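Note to self: user wants both folds in one dump. Writing first protein now.
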Amino acid sequence: MPPATDSTPTPLLRADRLTKTVKSGDAPLTILDGVTFDIAPGESVAIVGASGSGKTTLLGLLAGLDRPSEGEVWVGGHALSGLDEDARAALRQRLLGFVFQSFQLLPALTALENVMLPLELAGAGDAAGRARSWLDRVGLAKRTTHYPKQLSGGEQQRVAIARAFAGDPKLLMADEPTGNLDGATGAEIADLMFSLNRERGTTLVLVTHDDALASRCTRRLSLASGRLVADEAPN
């Protein structure tokens, strides 16, 4: 990644000519085609586009969960292609937090244990105390011993948000975070996520089909048929 100048701060996240192709019968199918952009520290960026435009594939590449067919991703100044799987996992653990549409909570663990787990894996001190504090922050102080199946969808997403922020990430990646929630609950979750994001100074990359949610970000990247067709501030 080129060095930053005084007037150009180092991007926290950079995508350079990202391309992803997969086999589809006898012909390759292009899911992403030469996508390039930078995201500066503190930005909130919505990735939008029709179903099948490549949004979730792009998020997976940015997080190092998948490898591009061509191109490069830099996270925190590190080129992901130069890292093996263990090193990519360590980078995610150190810099990234995730919120998914399907919550991705472990069903055999309580709310408290779900938030504690990544802290324990990272060797953090007082994982239980930090997890309790974050569950209190998201309004679930009285639900710490409940299992995911005992929680509503909105409560499960609050646990996921607590888990994402508990590790003090530099970058939060959210994939349709309100997609499985009703309108009122989704609005509450969006308010909570954006409030915590501003408070913590986190950089946010948000995949969504919800125009109202995208409009709360400071920037919108629009995909169509795997290509970046617009990079603009929402109206």
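First done. Writing the second protein, which came from a different request thread.
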Amino acid sequence: MAEGRLPHVQRVLAVGAHPDDIEILCAGTLALYARNGVQVVIAVATDGSAGHMIIPPDELARIRRDEAARSAEKIGAELLWMGFIDEYLFEDIATRLRFADMIRVARPDVILTHAPDDYHPDHRVVSRLMFDASFLSGVPHVKTEHEAHPGVKALFYFDVLTGINFMPSEYVDIGETYALKREMLACHESQVTWLREHDNIDILDFMTVMARSRGLQCGVQYAEGFRPELGWGRPRPYRVLP
């Protein structure tokens, strides 16, 4: 894919509630951004410490951070690890300001995050925080550690697990990067193993079925679906997805 296809996008930020959310739901798109020369920043809100029945939380948090780092390295992405305790993410002033500061560090032109009506409480909280914080991050009188990142940025919601109640209005053909997306998800070995043993789910196959389903909808082999936030200041008169 030739560089310069996305002249209005220099940096993209993808924010997931847990390690592996990004890989399941939008890593193919992030890999395409990276191939276009766009700097990719991946932020993970929680430490993933509740995602196992055997490994203790502190140990699991360390494992999952390492897994997330290996995944991000696959596409040369910067990883921002926020470290909130898994399953205990709530909206309050301090948390909103931390999210605003994270956005100021990332300085994105485009933001990808969870849909507002996703199935998991942490996913829903991240979605609301990103809507709010991505507005506040551009307001100079809202003070955080880093300087304001001017403007209201384009915001896209990525798919939900199994796609229930999520109707994409935009699709990204990830045929070129599907294999890389799979490699990124496979880096999360603790979850691949746990989900297979605990829930009888092959998360790699799960991800493939989702990508094929969205691909069927738009006439390609593999795709990822998105829905833009259409509130004032968000839409663009040009395409910002790859």
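Dump finished. Worth passing along: The chain is about 40% helix and 15% strand.
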